[in-house]
Amino acid sequence: MPTQRMAGLPSGRRTKLVMLALWVVIAAVMGPLALKLADVQDNDSLGSLPAGAEASRAAAREEAAFPEPDALVAVAVYVRESGLTDADRAKVDADRAAFAAHALGGTVAEPVPAADGKALLLTFALAGDAEQQTAAVAPVKDRLAAQAPDGLRTALTGSAGAEDDFADAFAGLDVTLLLATVAAVAVLLLLTYRSPVLWVIPLLTAAVASQVAGGVVYLLVKHTGLTVDLQSQNIMTILAVGVGVDYALLIVARYREELRRHQDRHEAMGIALRRSFPAICASAATVAIGLLCLLAADQPATHGLGPVGAIAVVATLFAMTTLLPAVLVLFGRWVFWPFVPRYTPGIEEQDVAADHGVWARIARLVGARPRTVWLATAAVLAALTFGVTNLSVGLPGDETFTDEVGSITGQHLIERHYPGGTLAPAVVIAAAGTATPVADAARTVDGVATVGEPERSADGRWVRIEATFAAEPTSPAAQEALERLRAAVRGVPDSQVLVGGDTAFEVDGDAVTSRDNLVVIPLVLAVILLVLMGLLRALIAPLVLLASVVLSYAAALGAAGFILDAMGHPRLWSAVPLQTFLFIVALGVDYTIFLMTRAREETARLGHRKGVLHALTVTGGVITSAGVVLAATFAALNVLPMVPSMQIGVIVTVGVLIDTLLVRSLLVPALAIHIGRFAWWPGRLSRATTAAEIPVSPPVPVS
């Protein structure tokens, strides 16, 4: 059988050495490539829309009709709440002269005063290539802060300020994220294994898997056009470590069991792999195929995450089922020191459940009152869902960072003294012959503060008209005004009008997100259902498991709603609900897969009721450890200064813990017992009637 042959490779006396040599070659080739992955990141996809969205089409038309240098724009803002003084204006004039050395064309336009006399703006594009523009931001910031009169507030915003803040915020954070993840996992593995040696092996194997995944992704980026961004690379690392350690915990737990039954460690590992490989493979398939479902999404950031995450899971699967067993067998039993599992003749007749006292008691509780347990657990989960009311979808641009940075401070200063949309007006691109009626239509729109004069393109075909909203560009009021603006200008015959800009981006982004949710979520659920049906060879149990993980996601979102609201970040980035749904459902169902595959194995031997309780007893500890480790890896995302990453980290961490501690431990086994053998319908286990079907409590642990 393929599984037996697979298990024999890393556990064989000679083939384990071949496997180790193969992995040395793979790591030597892929490691250097993985180090280059940051060089090919395309972070534009984090904030882009599909080409078919109106905001994207408007931007493309504007770029073609009004070609301009690809330059960062610096916006220097000066504010004194009591009114600008002569000294303040002198500071602005001196800065304007100094900024000319960095400005495109060598000049900076006259400052733009606020109507209230309390603020001035200097706006200019930076000169030079991308590297020179980036380097110019630091002296511009230094000049802006230098010799400012007491009480004058200054800040740099615009694309130049935002890009500089982004670079500062993420400087060295890839290493910080990796160290935080490794530290959290290392502590948990030490507590789980209680061995000063064993914890290192799964962690190093996961690190190798991460490097291999990074190397494969790099090659695909270079040769197939695959897009990888900062977020997808971070999640790739998280998945490799979190999922890898999960698989390692399952294999090591089975290996430890078999070492007590078999004198030959090679034989023990072969049996452990044969028994754990189907569940691990099904788990990896569920997560990988679920991630690939993101290819059906239109949102570029979500679409690109799918293949990158799937590659990480597949690389981890191979590393944990080939490299890890070979290393463990090579080192022998001593890696478990000081709790070395010794071969004990005759232990085959003993029930391993006797070694799991805590989980035996939990199983006894579930078996005694299954209906009460699942109803109570479902009620708790339902109660947690009420926290969803604290959340909303739509993250304003000024809340992207967890702490306010200079460019955001500048935006806030401008918003207090200028019309809300000053920095980000709507851009109307229309046929040149309709310039006057389009501009007139825009001026009639409620919520539009000012409409600029039409600017004709060089070829005479198009005009560009800027419409400034009274409200802040990403606010609901501005989005409603945009819809009215689009309706008004579309009413002009033959205008061929397109409306873009930041507000249009937000509105179109919400539409794309809604479409992705409607398409991808059912697709993910269908994939998971098919995998569960094939694995369990049943229909009822997979349907119950699918319903449980959906309830788990709703509870996780609700519980996270309370947490994020307390943290001051309840407004979700638009892609967060779909991405967290995938992670919680696909990763959460893993633990149920591990439980129910063992339950199926035990049911065939002991009967349904005792088989489910026995499976809960013997898998409880290791699966709980796996869930806590995975939760800790996603919690590490909170070291990143970006609110979307923090939101994903909080929601997935809470979701994995709920799935591990409540759904898999109480809800699923209680439901399985309450439903009875019918849970395995239409498989043969649903028709089994043996003496083992007599209700039996889990074994009392041996003292």
UniProtKB/TrEMBL annotation:
Keywords: Cell membrane, Membrane, Transmembrane, Transmembrane helix. It is a multi-pass membrane protein. The chain crosses the membrane at residues 169-191, 198-221, 233-255, 276-297, 309-332, 373-393, 518-536, 543-564, 576-594, 615-640, 646-667. Residues 165-330 form the SSD domain. It is found in: Cell membrane. Pfam families: MMPL. It comes from the Bacteria. Belongs to the resistance-nodulation-cell division (RND) (TC 2.A.6) family. MmpL subfamily. This is MMPL family transporter.
